[in-house]
Design a protein that fits this description.
The chain has 9 helices and 6 strands, in the order βαβββαααββααααα. By secondary structure, it is of the alpha/beta class. Helix 3 runs antiparallel to helix 4. The relative contact order is 0.10.
């Protein structure tokens, strides 16, 4: 049988609902001492410690509460790269402060927390996890072991991905103005120069640009258009010929 301890670190009133539900399953609850994680000094909303019977394994869970699911995911994942050993050391110091405060206030829970401190120091295995939850719900949206933990059966948020890989099919007609057609033609020309490694310098580019016999794209475009015009209906031929894209200016750009 496992024994659960729940520590409330952040006393924000927004967390009252979740804390009220979570404390029902905890054998011992404490609030009032400061606890920080990592060099950045992160302050979790709650810390849950579960001690297994016999006391040779424990699970320490840092809990972040937020108003929305996306915020909860971001908040809890910031602990993933933290060092588990440093967190356990900081939590041990936190328990020492809890014991001292209980002693100073004649809190009858002092022996229990002192015993927990001893158990934690002698436990052979402690799993450190991070969890995110909504303040309005007692269920976690995500629970993950820290990155430096041994590989465990993590309990990530269930993500339903109904997107299937579909072939990208482009359809339709885009009509370009004279200026747009010239810009597109220049982009194609520059891309052709890059592919053929004729863009190393301005001189090389302009010299290559003036030689039609060295530019396969210039030779290919008129032949392709000739084939299209021969096989196209009369109405389509007229539209192609009138298009600003089919112009000697564009081919020279």
């Amino acid at each position: 049988m496992a024994t659960e301890y729940l520590f409330r670190v952040d006393g924000a009133k927004d967390n009252d609902d979740f804390f009220g539900i979570a404390r029902a399953s905890a054998r011992h609850v404490y609030a009032g001492a400061d606890f920080r994680v990592g060099a950045a000094g992160w302050i979790p909303d709650l810390v849950r410690l579960v001690v297994e019977e016999p006391p040779n394994t424990c699970t320490l869970k840092l809990i972040e509460l937020e108003a929305t699911e996306s915020e909860a995911l971001v908040s809890c994942r910031k602990y993933l790269p933290e060092n588990s050993g440093n967190i356990l050391s900081a939590f041990g110091d936190y328990l020492d402060r809890v014991v001292r405060q209980c002693r100073a206030s004649a809190d009858p829970r002092e022996p229990e927390f002192a015993s927990l401190r001893a158990i934690l120091s002698q436990t052979s295995r402690v799993t450190v996890m991070t969890a995110g939850a909504l303040r309005s719900s007692a269920t976690f949206v995500e629970e993950l072991p820290l990155i430096d933990q041994p590989k465990l059966a993590a309990q990530p948020r269930a993500i339903q991905d109904d997107q299937t890989d579909k072939a990208r099919v482009f359809q339709g007609v885009l009509r370009l103005s004279q200026r747009e057609a010239n810009v597109l033609g220049r982009c194609v020309m520059i891309l052709d120069a890059v592919v053929r490694q004729r863009d190393h310098s301005s001189a090389t580019f302009h010299d290559w640009r003036g030689r039609e016999r060295t530019q396969p794209l210039k030779r290919l475009l008129p032949r392709t258009m000739e084939i299209i015009l021969r096989s196209a209906p009369s109405s389509l031929k007229r539209r192609i010929v009138e298009s600003p894209w089919i112009s000697t200016r564009c081919c020279r750009s």
